[in-house]
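Appendix B. Extra example for self-study. Work through it before the problem class; the solution is given directly after the inputs so you can check yourself.
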Amino acid sequence: MNSGRFLIPFVLLLLNLSGCKVSNIKSAPVKEAHVTSSQSTLSSQLAVEKETIRFLEDRLKKDPEDFIAYNKLAQQYLQRLRETGDLTYLNLATKAAHSSLSTLPPEQNIGGLTASAQVEYASHDFAAARDHALKLTQLEPKKGYTYQILGDALLELGEYEQAAAAYRTMEDLSGIQGLTRSAIEQRLARLAALHGDTSGSRQHLKNALTLALDLPEPPAETVAWCRWQLGEAAFAVGDYVAAEQQYRQALEGYPEYFRALASLGRARAAQGDIKGGIEQLEHAVRIIPDPSFVATLGDLYKLDGRDKEAAAQYELVERIGQINELNGTLYNRQLAVFDADHDIKSKRAYENATREYAVRKDIYGADALAWAALKNNKVAEAQSLMTSALRLGTKDARLFYHAGMIAKAAGDLKQGREYLQRALSLNPQFDPLQAAIARKALAE
Amino acid sequence: MFRSKKKKLGLIALALFVGFALIKTPLPPADAADHAESTSVAGDPGADIADVFAFLDPNDNSKVVLALDVEGFVVPSELLNLSFFAPDVTYRLEIENTGDATPDKHFDITFSPQTARNQPQTATIKLPNGGQFTAPTTVQTLNAAANPFVVTTDPSSGASFFGGLTDDPFYFDIVGFNRFVSSVLAGNPNPAALQRGRDSFAGYNIHMIAIEVPASMLRGTNGNIIGVNGVTLRSKQSHRQDNGEDKTNGKLVQVDRMATPAVNTALIPFPRKNEYNAATPIDDANLRFAGDIIGTLTALGTNQTNINILANVAVLHGDYLRLDLSIPNGSVGFGERVTTPGYTGFPNGRRPGDDTIDDLLFFITNQNPVGDNVNSNDVPLGNVFPFFAQPQQPRNTGVIDDNTRN
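Solution. Structure tokens for the complete assembly:
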């Protein structure tokens, strides 16, 4: 649920500017991995991507008005962004989409409009993505993919019913192509999870994975993504062993899959293996210093008694936050939650969360702002926002934890205990530090 | 015959004015979402028809080649899961042979699911007489040389089949053309917009389905004149069962249709484009889209005489690619013009090499020799069935593709 991949350039900038030395940010030698057949599939797929990008870039060198090449290239760059987390690719995709639309306007250039909506979505400009997606659905009302883009933007904006309707239309219009069905199942899984149907969500994710694996050449990133999501679903209900298994399988097919690495670190820590968790998180942060990865790594250092290193990680998240103020709002939410979790600059957390919630009223936006409001002693506001955050019936330990702490602060000790109980019985180790705080609060 | 050609072309010219050349870029199936969001699909794999061809086999005029292609702009390296014929789509070639707007017979082609990149799909070709045969598709490769085309001939009917990736035979400069059309619509025609001379389709591949059948299989009460219409259909309901098998049921629903080049995407204004795709030549003949056409023509200053001529041709008999089986054909049209002596191509059917866009522009500009300066396909066409060129293959690193300029 976040945007760490956008971070690399900012962090590199930070390091250059500050001379800050953070050992685990430096590039480390990549371990020689045992090459399995799935890894050779990955390498051949990456080679094809590279060749396709070269082909398209070459065309544009010769004809800078080749809008079809721009449109195809934007898609390729966005896929690379997905795979690497490198924000450079988002910038390239954005430029490609703009160049395409400046060559031919949207009415003559549906591919350009599609790229534009997808770039906006990736840049967290969800309102613009929604508006362009709406236009796409008008231009192509019989094509499932236009409703997918629309539904995704609506979901991030917290328009859940409209998003569900868009996904239903997508499902109705799409055939039975494996990748399309997989994409639909992933979205149904997300909707189910939001509505508290954890087992339904896992089933949808299993379907999504099966569909991807059934393809003649399963796309490595999609497979890794599905496995990672299955791991997250298991972690969310406290099944750390199953979660770890999924993360490891994801990494088998995609060894540098940073999402699975970070999650594997969390799963190790949740099972009491703090050092093992640190090892995985360090690896993930070397690939992409997502602030949530960096923050978790700091938490694990702290649990390991390495306070100095923990402080360095927290400082890094802090610095990222400062750059964020200059560079936009890609990872506002993570930083607000980090600040609130660690009782650092609570006012800034509240401001960041408020700014985001003004344009994006999804349940996690409400949760972030509620949590930040509590840390600013705005208890009534926190209560009201928490009601909104829980409105779908989502079963998420972090939501219950926040709800419990807010109820407690409001003086409703009974409800506070109930929520904290729910959080800890659902996912006893939902967070390296916050779970312990929840336990302590429950014991009080 | 010439008169009817002219009329047809005029209509198409109109079409181009009305709607621009709307060319969609197909998108890779798993493109980027963001911030750990779900994988995406874009496009409708396999069901969007790009072009339809109908021509007499230049080597044997007793046979007719019918072809349709789908999902173009395939980069030579871009095979993987992108490149296959959708197993849930019925590819149909409708034949009209009684002189009205109603299709009289059809060929249906369906494909088995792709099981591996190095294995062919199996096509099932259903003939109008109820017969059918199966044939493998041509497998693609990333090697420097393309695999040879696999052509299967059914001994009992004499029908041949090819299905696989080919070079995209279409050629024209979309950007220049659209800018020219914009300038005309703005009241300041600017032929200089056509000077770019870039073939937007060069270097890309497309998924081609071609059949060759004895002309006798196609003739009806309208003598030697047949109409050809390409259609894709899907079952109304299709879903994946718990056992993992795909199940489709319900009646087939039309996804797309295509006959005369550019009409499908360009003739009909945006608000009615999808309606047009789902409609039939009978709807055309019932004047369902006539108002759009005439309104736009009037706005463009076309006079009543021409409006009548154009409406009479394309609207009243439906949108079919009309082929006269009695006109001898000796080539695939590569490098020919509509003004070339002995020219036998589009709008008499359509051969792979016909310069349809220049033919259209010729009439758009009141028979002035204005063209888009892209005058033939970027690679030579084949000289035996299926008559299309082999697919473009990945180039060595450092070799820049500049086929966009002829």
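Self-check: Residues 195 and 315 of chain B are 33 Å apart (CA to CA). If your reasoning did not lead you there, revisit section 3.
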